[in-house]
Amino acid sequence: MNINWYPGHMARSLREMGERLEQVDLVIETCDARLPESSRNPEIRALIERKPVILALTKADLADPEVTSEWISQYREAGLTALEVAIPERSGLPRLVEAIQESGAEVVAHARSRGLKARAIRAMVVGIPNTGKSSLINALAGRRVARIENRPGVTRAPAWVRTTGGITLMDMPGILWPNLGSERQRLLLAASGAIRDDILNREEIAFATFRLLRERYPALLAGRFRLPQDALEDEAEDAYVLYEEAARRRGAVLPGGRIDGDRFARLLITELRDGRIGRISLETVADRALP
Q1: Residues 92 and 83 sit within 8 Å (Cβ to Cβ)
Q2: Which position has the higher pLDDT, 139 or 144?
Q3: How far is CA 23 from CA 32, 52, 127, 168, in A?
Q4: How far apart are CA 131 and CA 89, in angstroms?
């Protein structure tokens, strides 16, 4: 998978983030609950560690709840405040507000000790593209203040947003890192939508995703694409033959009977991202040991 990035732009964004950290009391880092570790930029993590950090596992409504629970336990055992958030259902938002207020309590107490009116707690919201930063900010603000699209790179510049509960948020642009980790991590980022679709081999990503779903969620794959589950679970069955059969059963066929590879790749990836295949986690705690 050949991906070219622009390190200079990322370096400027990281530098600006570092400078603005002095203006906030804590940081909310968003990651995709379907791939929590792979959707955390290691350069952001290193930069923000001097501030209290709350890790928000967003899109939890799309992820496998059992796997998400395991991730939360792992992060908490490591001493990190980690919460799952499902924005459409507003699940986890009250607890997130509580965590922000608890983390910023020292700011309020310091102001009162000096006889001053307590100012709002200031939190910076950071993360990689398409991990739900803008959706989270809008949910906390109770109104649409940040632009939302289901593609990376929408937030262009830092912006302050006032919310209820005595909290002010700074929305930062999503930042990827130059090499994007291992081949496996790049695949997961591409499947989730963190990497722009126009710079990838969509069919390569779709087939790799199909193989991952076959391994971990054969029942969901069988149900959505009308495939026999026993064939999916039979290791002797060729993966690409099953992939082509799934395309045929969903009508992605060209005149003459050939598979419309691009059409089916778009369909599979879109349905994965929208949760139409089911609640799926692309990464488990055990995957940390994988290259």
Answers
A1: yes
A2: 139
A3: 26, 13, 18, 11
A4: 16
- What is the distance between the alpha carbons of residues 196 and 137, in angstroms, rounded to a whole number? 22
Query: Which pair of tokens denotes residue 4?
Result: 């070219």
Note whether 81 and 54 are within 8 A (CB): yes
pLDDT at 9 over 80: no
- CA distances to 7, 70, 100, 182, 192 from 35, rounded to whole Å, are 23, 12, 24, 14, 8
pTM beyond 0.85: the answer is yes
- Is the per-residue pLDDT at 147 higher than 70? no
pLDDT above 50 for 151: no
Q: And the tokens for 62?
A: 């799309």
Instruction: Delineate the domains of the chain, giving CATH numbers in brackets.
Output: 7-171 (3.40.50.300), 201-289 (1.10.1580.10)
